[in-house]
Write a structure and sequence with these properties.
The chain has 659 residues and is an alpha/beta fold. The chain contains 28 helices and ten strands. The N and C termini lie far apart (74 Å).
Length: 659
């Protein structure tokens, strides 16, 4: 029997080794945690026992995971994606749950020794309906496919799965009660959940933002972190006292904080706790797996693995088609979500604790789910190839896209190819157009491409990291190529293709910072522009010089664009934490002045104050919490807040004139 310290050291040491090994193989750390749990668990090397301490640590991991999900819960996001989330997502979870229940009940009828009642079938269906948000989002981000057609559908389904976990966490433990009292139990659980959630949401909505503001004003990172842990664990404790899950309270706490200005700071602060404790949770899940039993019944595990992946892939692909997706998009959506997810283990853990599922069945299902998650990176890496081979019209669609790109650029000579048509790409295109220089853009966001094409822009749906797309865009006739997305890995892939196809073509690359500058330069980049406030203007200036535009004209053009676009951004509000030497003489900043009842400016028109004569500008005016246009004829009233812009001396004189 290990002491608490010995057990913690053992888990941490093994976790470090496991994550290092799996990261070296370019596999998700989560799989490393699961593998470590299997090896050190009581069914393998027996280095660690399945104790209440490990379960407590693991449960805290789930608490912080649900808190993070709550932080991402956005009503605006749900509203904009409601058809995918509440249409396709709801259909996927419901269909997977129903079909899995049917198959489980059939298996229970044919093999009575499995003890598969409808409660166990429901728990298995809920677990199978989940997919891995961590694995899928990470891989899609690396592939720059979050905004693609299949990427939006995948994210919408994952979002609904995360929401569906909340009622499933309430339902599955309730199913273990006496069947005669099940309806009463479920009704009572639903009533308690409604009351607790109503109290948390009603009072929390009013208090959360104000309380975090009070804490933040103390300017103590330690206090902010302590308060964050208090709120998260406190909300979890409240729901636990009501007989509900800890995770439900944490989810609500995250949801409430997501509506405050501190969401992003909280998200960064909670990551270390979430990742470490969630890793320990996956170790405890791995410890449940009986490796000898799984090896003895490997054929059953393999059958379950193939059945689960095939079932989810087929259901999701068919539903995506029913909701209007093209065959290739539907197949990619199904392939990306065919694996099990983090919450599959959470739900199975609840089912195991409630003794809903036979231990033998639990072992087989656990093993198949772990293997499905290990297979996920390989499936997603090859899903394009699979879609091209299986979907009859996918090859035709991509061929048509390349043909359209080639047709639009066929007559173009000495043009600039823009890889990525986001904000930076569009700014570059505008400046090139004003200089009467031709350009053509490739982008992977179908909605953006459609909108831009409708407006007459020279942009097509295409991947600049594919040889065929660059050839179709006329790389052999181009004068320059500009990579506007700040992704070093993909930029290196594009540079490799350019080196093969047109080694003398100037290539300008955008990067996050100058840390990758040497690598990109070595790969053939002519210029590397680190990402900053004026990154789009810098990209444009390099592109114009490369195209032979005189330097004097380039400087004038960029300066004119800066004056036009960033006039509203000049200046900032000075705070107590700003050092005195940061405020150089003549530096422009912002300052708010509230007019009291005896202020000299009350009853006067803005024009009559002649603030511009002393070097101050009124940028905004607020009255009764509402913004007003600072028109010259506006008459100032007591209580008005006047926002001024100017250097320190001008602001002082303007404030004296107002008050």
């Amino acid at each position: 029997m290990h002491s608490g310290l010995e057990l913690t050291l053992l888990l941490l040491g093994c976790a470090v080794l496991g994550v290092v090994a799996f990261r070296s193989l370019h596999l998700p750390p989560m799989l490393g945690y699961l593998a470590v749990g299997v090896l050190i668990g009581p069914h393998a090397l027996a280095l660690a026992e399945d104790s209440p301490t490990t379960h407590a640590l693991g449960e805290f991991g789930v608490v912080f995971l649900m808190f993070s999900i709550g932080l991402e819960f956005s009503l605006n996001q749900l509203r904009s994606m409601r058809r995918i989330v509440f249409g396709l997502g709801l259909a996927q979870v419901t269909a997977t749950l129903i079909v899995t229940m049917g198959l489980a009940l059939l298996a229970g009828f044919l093999l009575p020794q499995l003890n598969l009642g409808w409660q166990a079938a429901f728990a298995l269906g809920g677990a199978l309906a989940m997919s891995s948000t961590a694995i899928v989002v990470k891989l899609l981000t690396e592939r720059l496919e979050l905004e693609s057609e299949h990427g939006r559908r995948i994210i919408g389904i994952l979002l609904f799965q995360d929401l569906a976990v909340v009622p499933l966490l309430i339902l599955i433990p309730a199913l273990a009660r006496d069947p005669e009292d099940l309806a009463v139990t479920l009704g009572y659980a639903a009533l308690k959940a409604a009351l607790v959630l109503a109290l948390l949401l009603f009072f929390g909505q009013k208090l959360m933002g104000r309380w975090f503001t009070v804490v933040a004003k103390r300017r103590s990172q330690e206090l902010f972190m302590l308060n964050l842990l208090l709120v998260t664990l406190g909300a979890a404790w409240i729901t636990e006292q009501a007989g509900l899950s800890l995770a439900l309270g944490a989810f609500v706490a995250g949801m409430l904080i997501s509506e405050t200005p501190y969401k992003h700071q909280v998200e960064e602060d909670i990551k270390p706790f979430r990742d470490v404790l969630l890793g320990l949770f996956f170790i405890t899940i791995g410890m449940l797996l009986d490796l000898a039993l799984v090896l003895e019944h490997w054929w059953a595990v393999l059958l379950l693995l193939l059945l689960a992946i095939g079932l989810k892939f087929g259901l999701i692909a068919l539903l995506a088609r029913a909701f209007g997706a093209a065959p290739g998009t539907a197949m990619r959506t199904g392939l990306a979500l065919a694996q099990a997810g983090e919450f599959s283990f959470v739900l199975l853990n609840h089912a195991s604790e409630s003794r809903l599922v036979d231990p033998f069945v639990m072992q087989l299902v656990l093993a198949s789910m772990v293997l499905s998650m290990m297979a996920a990176p390989f499936i997603i890496a090859h899903m394009d190839r699979i879609a091209l081979k299986v979907a009859a019209n996918e090859w035709m669609t991509q061929s048509l896209q390349l043909t359209q790109i080639a047709a639009r650029t066929m007559k173009t000579q000495k043009h600039v190819i823009i890889a990525g048509f986001g904000r930076s790409g569009q700014s570059l295109a505008t400046l090139l157009g004003e200089e009467k220089l031709s350009w053509y853009a490739l982008d992977l966001d179908p909605e953006r491409v459609q909108e831009a094409q409708a407006a007459g822009a020279g942009v097509s749906y295409g991947d600049a990291a594919r040889r065929e797309s660059l050839i179709a865009a006329g790389i052999h006739r181009a004068s320059a190529l500009v990579i506007t997305f700040a992704d070093t890995r993909l930029a290196l892939r594009v540079l490799h293709l350019v080196h093969e196809l047109a080694p003398n073509l100037p290539v300008i690359v955008r990067s996050h910072d100058d840390g990758d500058m040497d690598v990109l330069k070595a790969a053939g980049a002519t210029e590397v522009v680190p990402e900053a406030l004026e990154s789009s203007l810098m990209l444009a200036s390099h592109a114009l010089v490369t195209m032979g535009v005189p330097l004097r004209r380039v400087v004038h053009r960029v300066q004119a664009a800066r004056d036009e676009r960033y006039a509203a951004l000049r200046g900032y509000f000075h705070g107590a934490s700003d050092a005195a030497h940061d405020l150089e003489p003549g530096q422009v900043r912002l300052h708010s002045v509230r007019l009291h009842a005896q202020a000299l400016a009350v009853g006067m028109r803005l024009a009559g104050l002649k603030l511009e004569e002393i070097g101050a500008e009124v940028t905004a005016l607020r009255r009764g919490g509402q913004g007003l246009e600072p028109e010259p004829e506006v008459v100032l009233l007591a209580g008005d807040v006047v926002v001024l812009r100017g250097d320190g001396e001008a602001l002082n004189r303007a404030e004296e004139r107002l008050l």
